[in-house]
Write a structure and sequence with these properties.
The complex is a heterodimer of chains A (262) and B (369).
Chain A: H1 2-6, H2 11-32, H3 45-59, H4 61-64, H5 81-90, H6 112-125, H7 134-137, H8 144-154, H9 156-159, E1 166-167, E2 173-174, H10 182-191, H11 206-221, H12 235-258
Antiparallel strand pairs in A: 1-2
Chain B: H1 4-11, H2 49-52, H3 54-84, E1 90-93, E2 97-100, H4 101-127, H5 145-162, H6 168-180, H7 183-187, H8 205-210, E3 220-222, E4 239-244, H9 247-254, H10 258-263, E5 265-269, E6 288-292, E7 304-306, E8 311-313, E9 320-322, E10 328-331, E11 340-341, E12 343-345, E13 351-353
Antiparallel strand pairs in B: 1-2, 3-4, 4-5, 5-6, 6-11, 7-8, 8-9, 9-10, 12-13
Helix pairs in contact in B: 3-4
The chains are: A mainly alpha (262), B alpha+beta (369).
């Protein structure tokens, strides 16, 4: 205790206190700002569309334009369909926090009901992919092995073989799929959010998409007995990572052994 | 260690030479002389706290013993973890994420068990074992004159007895044989360049990579599910990994994946007015473009297509191709553009190749940078 009192004027103490305070404020904000989950889905069509239009003008029109034709800041939303709206807004990617290479997933700003209303409005502007039905999302009979083959052909190039995500050009990235829901995966394949290409139903049919979803769900559920999965990038890369870390620890130990005792 | 000389005379075995009595022959010099086996260094000695303060010495003793006790405790905990923890339970550990509880406990206890023995030993050596500044001397690496003479004598005797100087024929044929034997290693490098006009040997890389399974009218099928593709199946912004229709038959005939590796393509679709240039006039079909999937740098399969920028990125070395601009390289080590496959539709309305690839696919090689 005496040592503690003597050390309180140490310059490190000020920065430590600052760090604790910052982490505390950030933590409180993160807990307080978590959005409340949704209740029911949209009501009758026309009221939903009207309400969706109001929400659109409020939250989206500054970038996508008052008539949804798009501006220099955002693409047109005519014909993107309800699936695109649901994917972008329900993962928090839209509205964007600020201009940048990519809109990352973040806490959601709208309730499920509001999202459904906006989706109804955008869908009323032009034909586009609809929100997938429960039947389309049912992957219980899908072939996981087939899904793995299709995943490696169509998805692994950007999202990595085990769905850990990866880098693209100019600061863009393919996100990790480890927290994606079947609906989000289906909608992403259908609509091609941001720089992801569209994987249409013609070339990747409904059962193929279900197989891919089954494979990703299998990856998500797979246990990680060793911990620190590192996106499951593979034994060589993991070994190299571990080797580098252990070597650094060995250098530290060697320094300790060599230091003169006081 | 205030009294170096006492320890010296008490602990150091005598190796047959007294101090300061260095014999002329370097090899015969004693390696072990002073305290701790080495001579004391000519520098002031700074005592440690545990040397001067008996309390500090006892504290160090307790620390060392504590570490050894901790090691024993860890061994006990290891056995407890092995017996008591369900091997299929996962826990969340900060920094490690989800991890098998038993794995984590076994690794942690065994690792700490071993570590504490080592750390205790080091603490013991640092705080309590003798602390003296010593000089480690190194003897000269040069041979003694006697060894030089002996080596020269042996060489001369060898020359004499083998008759190397005497048998001129043997000497010359041996030198010639040694000069010739590396030649086969050099001759085999011939495989690397091509016998252009007939000749024997392997096919040249130019021929190998210029001929793929794509021929005029070959239907395009999806990779993985092998279904034929209609233009309306590829939406704007879409990406399809594709192969020639007959790829499975070729694979069965050749018992290899070489044909697949060369013929893999991607189809992308953009608005026709977004296409700034192509490798041939009208090689697209209503904005659908077909490009090889194999990077022209070292041949990685690539399909990292960004549908807003139309960039195709190779994950191996970050070569980037602009598919809206004839597949030209815009970044990275690739030395040539991505080959484009001209496509159209057949009478049934399916996408087909309208001609083979016009340039070799796959990695670069020296006939073609």
């Amino acid at each position: 205790m005496k040592g503690l009192v003597a050390r309180r004027r140490n310059p490190i103490v000020a920065s430590m206190l600052l760090l604790v305070a910052l982490v505390g404020v950030g933590g409180v904000y993160a807990v307080a700002s978590t959005a409340a989950p949704a209740e029911a889905v949209a009501t009758s069509d026309q009221t939903a569309i009207d309400e969706g239009k109001r929400l659109y003008l409020e939250g989206c029109s500054s970038c996508h334009g008052l008539d949804s034709q798009g501006t220099s800041n955002g693409p047109t939303l005519i014909g993107v369909g309800a699936a695109a709206v649901h994917f972008q807004v329900s993962t928090g990617r839209m509205p964007m926090a600020g201009p940048g290479a990519q809109a990352p997933a973040k806490p959601v700003d709208y309730t499920e009901n509001e999202i459904a209303q906006m989706a109804a409005y955008i869908a009323s502007l032009g034909p586009g992919p609809a929100i997938p039905t429960a039947e389309q999302l049912d992957y219980s009979n899908a072939d996981v092995a087939e899904g793995g083959v299709l995943f490696r052909i169509n998805c692994a190039q950007c999202h990595q073989a085990a769905g850990g995500g990866g880098a693209l050009t100019d600061g863009k990235h393919a996100p990790s799929l480890m927290t994606a829901t079947p609906q989000e995966i289906y909608e992403a394949m259908l609509t091609g959010p941001q720089n992801m290409p569209v994987f249409g139903d013609g070339t990747l049919q409904v059962e193929d998409k279900q197989a891919i979803i089954a494979y990703i769900m299998d990856l998500q559920e797979a246990p990680s007995p060793g911990g620190m999965a590192l996106g499951r990038i593979g034994p060589v890369a993991e070994g190299l990572f571990l080797w580098a870390g252990v070597m650094a620890a060995f250098v530290g130990l060697a320094v300790w052994i060599g230091i003169r005792a006081r | 260690m205030s009294d170096v000389t006492t320890r010296d005379s008490a602990n150091t075995p005598d190796h047959g030479h007294g101090h300061g009595d260095v014999p002329a022959d370097d090899l015969a010099r004693p390696l072990y002389r002073g305290p701790g086996g080495l001579p004391a260094a000519d520098m002031p000695h700074r005592p440690r706290r545990s040397d001067t303060d008996p309390k500090a010495a006892r504290r160090a003793e307790r620390q060392v013993a504590g570490l050894f006790l901790l090691s024993m405790l860890m061994v006990v905990l290891f056995i407890v973890a092995y017996v008591a923890i369900d091997p299929f339970t996962d826990i969340y550990v900060p920094l490690f994420g989800e991890i098998g509880f038993q794995n984590f406990a076994l690794g942690l206890t065994f690792g700490l068990g071993v570590f504490c023995i080592g750390a205790g030993a080091i603490q013991w050596a640092k705080k309590l074992m003798p602390d003296v500044e010593v000089v480690q001397e190194r003897h000269s690496l040069a041979s003694t004159p006697r060894e030089d003479v002996e080596a020269a004598e042996q060489y001369e005797r060898g020359k004499e007895e083998s008759g190397f100087a005497q048998y001129k024929l043997i000497r010359r044929t041996l030198i010639a044989a040694l000069a010739l034997f590396p030649i086969p290693l050099v001759v085999m490098l011939r495989d690397l360049w091509s016998p252009k006009n007939g000749g024997f040997g392997p096919e040249s890389p130019v021929e190998l990579l210029s001929t793929t399974a794509w021929v005029e009218g070959m239907p395009i099928v999806t990779d993985g599910t092998y279904v034929k593709i209609r233009p309306e199946d590829v939406p704007v912004g879409g990406l399809v990994s594709a192969l020639p229709e007959n790829i499975m038959e070729i694979q069965e005939e050749e018992h290899s994946l070489n044909a697949r590796a060369k013929a893999a393509i991607i189809l992308v679709r953009m608005e026709p007015d977004e296409i700034r240039a192509q490798q041939g006039d009208g090689w697209d079909y209503q904005g659908i473009l077909a490009y090889s999937k194999i990077c022209t740098h070292v041949g990685c399969p690539i399909a990292l297509y960004e549908h807003r920028t139309h960039h195709l990125l190779c994950p191996c070395h970050q070569s980037t191709f602009d598919l809206a601009d004839a597949g030209n390289v815009i970044f990275g080590p690739a030395a040539r553009r991505m080959p484009q496959l001209p496509i159209g539709v057949n009478e049934e309305g399916f996408l087909v190749a309208t001609a083979p690839f016009a340039e070799p696919v796959g990695p670069s090689f020296w006939e073609r940078g």
